[in-house]
Amino acid sequence: MHARDLIGGLSHLVGEAGVIRDPDEQASYLRDWLGRYEGRTPVVVRPRTTTEVSAVMRLCHQTGTPVVPQGGNTGMSGGATPDASGAQVVLSLSRMTRIREVDTINNTLTVDAGVLLADVQRAAHEAARHFPLSLGAQGQCTIGGNLATNAGGTAVLRYGNARELTLGLEVVLPDGRVWDGLRGLRKDNAGYDLKSLFIGSEGTLGVITGAVLKLSPLAPACAVAWVGASTPASIVALLTSLQATFGQSVTAFEMMSASCLDIDAAQRDDAPMPLRDAHAYHALIELAGTPDDDLADRLRQALALATQSGTIDDAQVADDAARAAMMWRVREGISQAQVRGGKAIKHDIALPISRLAAFIDEADAAVAARFPQASVINFGHVGDGNLHYNALLPLDIPDDDFARLTTSLNLCVHDIVVQRGGTISAEHGVGQLRRDALRRYKSPVEMDLMLMIKRALDPNQLMNPGKLL
Ligand SMILES: Cc1cc2nc3c(=O)[nH]c(=O)nc-3n(C[C@H](O)[C@H](O)[C@H](O)COP(=O)(O)OP(=O)(O)OC[C@H]3O[C@@H](n4cnc5c(N)ncnc54)[C@H](O)[C@@H]3O)c2cc1C
């Protein structure tokens, strides 16, 4: 089908307001958040309902048109960016923003896939409940994108990742049929777990159009603290001891190398510093519970003991909400500061928590020896064993040099991760960025199983080609 006829057909299905033809207006849909990937498209199509998504997918199926689903376009792996062929239609869920149902007895929220994560959290809050998925891009990313990448974020330690927060899904299949799996069930063993298959499939098996999300009770009290320590092993030791003392009340435990704070401080004079002195490693800790738990005082005591015993060097518990918010801003500002501070070779790895510290020691030594021009920016969700172990290079490094270094540095870091029983993709998805690495590290049996699933669900290979597999 000629591109003009395809665009005409799509605009007939979703209305003129639902298609973007103008290249200037398309621009923000064609470039990823990090500015690393850029593609072309004949049209960005923005349906408003599942029925419209179904009609769009049916037309694309009939015409052999590849489709790239897109939510908030905050992904870190180039998964939502079309290729340069100009043949792939971008299917944006950004107009599907309905909160469909709030059920405070079943403790569930049913939403369209295009609802922003921050709006999901707000809707839960208005119902006096808590939706715990929480990440730096929550004002821009959509719940559909969160589910397609099985997003993690800062509260996985206590509540699990996106998959564990989802009870039901609605998915439009590559041929346009709708699978209505919007069940709010906590137990459902009637057949294969299709929901889990689509979650984390990065738009390669179908388009997620709706979800039933699990809500938690509001935690009326929380305590936030910032810690300085000299080694990652000390940070892991603190995590273990706090979990022994506070159990599931430990909702977030984030770690940052000193370079994460230095990079922000180098860019602006008023960069906040939660502790006065410099430390090689920092941690941000959040506990949640009831006012009776006396969390702030108990945390203060626990951290004082950890300082006395030499596990950590310094700690400060936030006295008020403003100070706690400042601590979180420092943590969440790292991604932006990193983009401004240099060209990053990014890793999204996870290891058993017991092996994290040894991994960091080995990887730091290997990177310093083999890539002296790179500085390591290491931060992440230590409570889940997930690190963004990134290497920063100067902004003006020539593209060829950057590409060459990326290949060899990725190999160096990923080989160490896999030898130590870890994964090369923890929460950001494989997308385009880690597609080759996936093939390198997955066994032939595992790759074959994934390819069989892909062929069964998307025999014409129209869903998000060039991503993941
Ligand atoms: C500052 C910042 C901080 C971040 N912090 C975290 C973090 O802590 N944890 C974390 O996990 N991620 C984090 N991210 C990454 C990103 O926000 C997540 O991957 C998020 O889940 C992507 O959602 P999105 O709506 O932007 O999806 P997009 O970027 O639009 O898409 C991501 C992938 O999902 C697919 N997709 C999108 N919507 C659908 C749909 N409805 N159906 C099928 N496939 C779909 C796309 O094709 C693509 O493959 C961060 C990003 C930024 C910019």
Brief sketch in words of this structure:
The protein has 469 residues and is an alpha+beta fold. It is 37% helix and 20% strand. Strands 12, 13, 14, 15, 16, 17, 18 and 19 form an eight-stranded antiparallel sheet that branches.
Description:
This protein is an alpha+beta fold and 469 residues long. The chain folds into 4 domains: 3-92, 2-Layer Sandwich (Uridine Diphospho-n-acetylenolpyruvylglucosamine Reductase, domain 2), CATH 3.30.43.10; 99-217, 2-Layer Sandwich (Uridine Diphospho-n-acetylenolpyruvylglucosamine Reductase, domain 3); 221-335, Alpha-Beta Plaits; 342-444, 2-Layer Sandwich (Alpha-Beta Plaits), CATH 3.30.70. It has 16 helices and 19 strands. The chain has helices spanning 3-14, 23-26, 50-63, 117-126, 143-148, 156-159, 194-198, 232-246, 258-267, 295-308, 321-332, 334-341, 353-370, 399-419, 435-441, 444-457; strands spanning 19-20, 44-45, 67-70, 89-92, 99-103, 108-112, 129-130, 166-172, 178-181, 207-214, 216-217, 221-229, 250-257, 281-289, 314-317, 343-345, 349-350, 375-381, 386-393. Strands 12, 13, 14, 15, 16, 17, 18 and 19 form an 8-stranded antiparallel β-sheet that branches. A 5-stranded antiparallel β-sheet has the order 5-6-10-8-9. α1 packs antiparallel against α3 (50-63), α9 crosses α12 and α13 packs antiparallel against α14. The radius of gyration is 23 Å and the shape is globular. The chain starts with a helix and ends in a 12-residue tail after the last helix. 48% of the residues are buried. The model has no long low-confidence stretch (mean pLDDT 96). It binds flavin-adenine dinucleotide.
